[in-house]
Hints:
Blueprint: H1 8-13, H2 19-38, H3 50-58, H4 60-64, E1 72-76, H5 84-90, E2 95-100, H6 103-116, E3 121-125, E4 135-141, H7 146-153, E5 157-168, H8 172-176, E6 181-186, E7 199-205
Parallel strand pairs: 1-2, 1-4, 2-3, 4-5
Antiparallel strand pairs: 5-7, 6-7
Amino acid sequence: MDFIPGPEIVFRYFPDLTLSQKDQFLALGDLYAYWNQRINVISRKDIHNIYQNHVLHSLGIAKIQGFRAKDKVLDVGTGGGFPGIPLAIVFPHAHFHLIDSIGKKIRVVKEMIHQLGLTNASCEQIRVEQLKSRYKFIVSRAVTRLNRFIPCVKTNILSEGQILYLKGGDLREEIREVSAKIEVLQLPDFFQESFFETKKVLRIKGL
């Protein structure tokens, strides 16, 4: 049977977490297991690998970008709260707004934010095209192809802002389809597990 990583995998790669942050990550796995039985926001076969495949994957963004006090970060298509919830735990002084068009997913995210005591996170059921606010950072995890995603969020990002987009596989064709300036950062440079072999963070600027 394959080894299934627990929260220790997060603590190993982020050794400077406070006791409070560690407690939040410890609680996170049980909370997702509870809510996923009631509202399926993560694949049932994937819930046991939540710390590697969802939490640590989300925190790939934290390895390449820090968020400071008063930074406003928009998580587009958050689903069950990724990458926004893990990032909100690691960066308690920045503010994260998590949005998704599917109401049942946002209900879970709202409960997760409340039960984890995240005072720096909020959520909303809305499509990004309907959102009027602008943010310094937009984060997302492979919600669609770049040539569809970038036009949807262009009006929500400040002129000096950037998109941090988690995606895997061979992205050369997708990148050629858009005119934005894109820096490709490889997650295997930060995480040694085979799950991350083709995973990347795309830093998109100059929109």
